[in-house]
Each structure stands twice: as C-alpha cells, then as structure tokens.
Amino acid sequence: MNSVEITLGHSPDADDAFMFYALSQKKIPLGNYIFKETISDIETLNNLAMDEKIDLTALSIYTYCKVADRYVLMNCGASMGEGYGPRLVAKHKFEKKEMSQKKIAIPGLHTSALLALCLYLGKRPKNLDLMVCPFDQVFMAVEMGSADIGLVIHEGQISYLQRGLELCEDLGWWWKQTTGLPLPLGGNAIRRALGVQRCRELQSIVRQSIEWALKNRNEALQYAQKYSRGIEPALTDQFVAMYVNERTIDYGPEGKEAILQFIAQAKMLGMVDPDIQVEFVE
C-alpha cells in the first residue's frame, strides 16, 4: 500500500503535545499515513488553515467559521473550557464597564479568545483598542505598560498569579453562567479535499492518540512538560487536565451545542458569515 503524507499542525503547548504524543512518537498504528508535523502558535495555524496550506490542524473555533467551506471539524480533539477559559488580567482589577475603554493585549485576531472577549463586551474588534502580540508576550505587554489588560490563553490561564496580576474576568466562567455550556475554544479540522474516507481514518488515528495519552498519562505528561514554558509539573498536569479529558475524545451533544451557540452569537454580533454551517466528521 502506498504511503500518504499528511501535513499536521498543532500548537507548542502542553495540551496539544499531550494529545498528539502517541501519534508523533508512533505509539499507535498509523496505517499508511506519514505525518509531517508543523508545531506553531495557534494564530500561525489559523492562518495556514485560512490559506488551506495544511491538511489536518488544531485551530480556533472562530477561525473554523472562516474556513468551513474547505475544512470539516473532527469530533475529537476539542479544547473546551468547563467553566474556565481565556482570562483578562491586569496590574489591578478593572470592572467590565471600564474594560472596553482600555488597551487590551490579545493573542491574535482569529482566536476564539478574541471572539469570546467581543461577545463579553458586546463590541466588534474595530470598536476596541486592541494590541496584537504573540500569546507568550501578552504578560509582558501588561507588565511593561504597553497594554492595560491582557487576554491570556494556554498555561497563562493558571500562571498569571505567579506574575502578581489580578483577574478581571474569566471568559469561560462568564460564558458558563450566561449559556450553561462549556466555552469552545479550539478543535481539529481536516481538509475536505482529502475525501470522506480519509477524514474518517484520520479522525480515528487522532482519537486513538488522545485515548492512548489518557491511559498512559505519566509518559505523555513527561513529553508535554517540554512544552510548558517553565511552569512546574504540577501546573502542567492541572492545565492538561483542563483541556484534555473525556470531552476531548468526543464532543458529545453538549459540546456540539456549545459550538453552535458560540457561532450563533458571533453571527448576531456580525463577526462571522451568517450563512456559515458547521459540519463534523461522522
């Protein structure tokens, strides 16, 4: 059987590293697929998907809205905040009514964190004072005074306390209180051009990789620690548990409803095409 090369993208973060460890290190059968990995920050992966330059990739749910005509969402690989998510942090606490008047450092214009922020404030990006910077430089922007507030993602959601910053709002908590649903942040998407059968086969491989990591947690965590940017192993474990769990294996009805609700509210705010349709690999 001839081999098939698949370009695979995921972020250099502990949760993605944990999720894709078994696939990357060939701990599971890969069939006739050869994976060529691209490990880049989520905004770079979002841009690759928008240019359709990658076959299978982690991406922001907000970005999926912009590429749904060319990509289909996997049923596995979700990053959902179960009452937690991207956090707005500052040197001192700002109330919600103050935040829309402050300069906010964000990790990208195509991230679900930005969409959640806009839904929270009820304003589109053009009506906010935003400073775009790499996700791992958001803390510095606040600490140096370049921005008043930082929108932090990844392990920054739990490490901000170590930097002496105050929590202004947890957008995952706000979303849960508002909708009763988890906050859909990231997912895995596959190019439609690969065909239905390959999409199903690739989804099966990714699901097996997630299941393997959850069953062999210590080994996968040891690998993931390399992508934790200096935080302690206990915090890495905590962060991975937040975003790689049973819902990562399968969205389930509630997870799918969360995505539909997130996108519906984005449509109401005028941030995505009103005709966008979400499709999952079945």
UniProtKB/TrEMBL annotation:
Keywords assigned: Lyase, Menaquinone biosynthesis
Positions annotated to bind substrate: 112-113
Catalysed reaction, written as an equation: cyclic dehypoxanthinylfutalosinate = 1,4-dihydroxy-6-naphthoate + dihydroxyacetone
Keyword Plastid recorded: no
Entry's Gene Ontology BP terms: menaquinone biosynthetic process
Function, as annotated: Catalyzes the conversion of cyclic dehypoxanthine futalosine (cyclic DHFL) into 1,4-dihydroxy-6-naphthoate, a step in the biosynthesis of menaquinone (MK, vitamin K2).
Name of the protein described by the UniProt record: 1,4-dihydroxy-6-naphtoate synthase
UniProt organism field: Methylacidiphilum caldifontis
Lineage of origin: Bacteria, Pseudomonadati, Verrucomicrobiota, Methylacidiphilae, Methylacidiphilales
Gene it is expressed from: mqnD
